[in-house]
Design goal:
- This protein has 220 residues and is an alpha/beta fold.
- It is built from six helices and eleven strands.
- It folds into two domains: 130 residues, Rossmann fold, CATH 3.40.50; 66 residues, Regulator of K+ conductance, C-terminal domain (Alpha-Beta Plaits), CATH 3.30.70.
């Protein structure tokens, strides 16, 4: 996957290094040349010096063919501007914005942006969200211990019961939208065609959830 990371501070550099280790093509943008030193001499990705929401900088980074975009600079305003440009102008499929202000995070989530508003767990959680592309992460709770995932129920699971997807302490079906109506299911509720399912998932169980859904992860 081709991923652009804007901001090479503590979180941005960790995200970039983790993604490279996973085999992704990573391009890091920062206006401060000295910031790239955090990546280390053996960093296998590409670096681009410039402002992360500047059109020419984004084009140099290859935003037109990027599959994901992460904003992790020290400025909430810059992160949001860059995220909205990546999504609305260049139509990058997967965009995650790191924010310091949790109130702003809520507002921008309502606009359809995936936002993360904490720092201590930021790098690993950003990588979780950005790399599990078939899972639509709509909210990451503030402590990072749980994510809310939205998925369309696959054909293979139609007729299965909620209890067959629940994994105590790891994955829980919290709601289902069916025929434009959302309800809280019971353990015996059966999945039907076109159901949209909302699940609470801990980070370490993302891969297990993909296996339950029959999602094959791409090998890079």
């Amino acid at each position: 996957m081709k991923i652009i990371v804007m901001g090479c501070g503590r979180v941005g550099s960790q995200v970039s290094q983790l993604l490279v280790k996973l085999g992704h093509e990573v391009i890091v943008i920062d206006h401060d040349t000295n910031a790239f030193a955090r990546l280390g001499a053996d960093f296998k990705g590409k670096i681009v010096r410039g402002i992360g929401f500047d059109r020419n900088t984004l084009l140099e980074a290859g935003v037109e063919t990027a599959e994901a975009f992460v904003t992790a600079s020290a400025s909430d305003n810059a992160n949001i501007v860059a995220a909205r440009i990546a999504r609305n102008i260049f139509h990058v499929p997967r965009v995650v914005a790191r924010l310091y202000d949790p109130l702003r995070a809520v507002v921008y989530q309502r606009l359809g942006l995936t936002t993360i508003s904490t720092t201590g767990w930021g790098a690993e959680r950003i990588v979780e969200v950005i790399t599990h592309t078939d899972l639509d992460t709509i909210h990451v709770f503030r402590d990072g211990g749980t994510s809310l995932i939205r998925v369309e129920i696959p054909t293979r699971l139609q007729g299965y019961q909620v209890s067959q997807m629940n994994i105590p302490g790891e994955v829980v079906v919290v709601a289902i939208t069916r025929n434009d109506q959302t309800f809280i299911p019971v353990s015996g509720t059966e999945f039907r065609e076109d159901d949209v399912v909302y699940l609470a998932v801990i980070p370490s169980s993302m891969n297990r959830l993909e296996q339950l859904l029959g999602i094959e992860r791409s090998q890079l």
